[in-house]
Specification:
18% of the residues lie in helices and 22% in strands. The chain is of the alpha+beta class and 143 residues long. Strands 1-2-3-4-5 form a 5-stranded mixed sheet.
Length: 143
């Protein structure tokens, strides 16, 4: 036998919670409207802008009767080498020339008569420097 179902409980109006009353608000006209238009522009003398970028010029080195040139993209590639943190591109280029300029000029001494300007193209991943005269590679040096 099934138990009898109880009828639903009826809640009397006195047992219901009181209705929530919203606090009184002031009419919108009572709050002042702010003028959002910009005021007159004050003219001030400005100094020159700070130069945040390093000048993008090639770096040259005279060695063994040759003029070696590292262009800005090649200077930037030196950043991939170990020990390049916190150094500028120019410092890296100077350090590179200090370490390798004799080997670079020695690689082309038999092929290219001095004086000549040679572009040094750096590949940091293969750790090679290519020496170009015009559009022709005349020497390769591993470092």
């Amino acid at each position: 036998m099934l138990p009898e179902a109880e009828p639903p409980a009826v809640v009397s109006p006195e047992a219901r919670p009181p209705a929530v009353v919203a606090p009184e608000t002031k009419p919108a006209a009572a709050t002042p409207v702010r003028d959002r238009s910009p005021g007159p522009r004050v003219e001030r003398s400005r100094g020159p802008r700070p130069d945040m970028l390093e000048p993008r010029e090639p770096l040259y080195r005279e060695a063994g009767g040759y003029r070696l040139r590292l262009d800005p993209p090649d200077l930037a590639r030196l950043r991939e080498l170990p020990g390049s943190k916190e150094k500028t591109d120019r410092e890296l280029g100077e350090q590179f020339f200090d370490a390798h300029s004799e080997r670079l000029t020695g690689a082309v001494a038999d092929d290219v008569p001095a004086p000549a300007e040679l572009r040094v193209v750096v590949d940091p991943f293969s750790r090679q420097a290519f020496l170009a005269l015009g559009r022709t590679i005349r020497g390769i040096v591993s470092f």
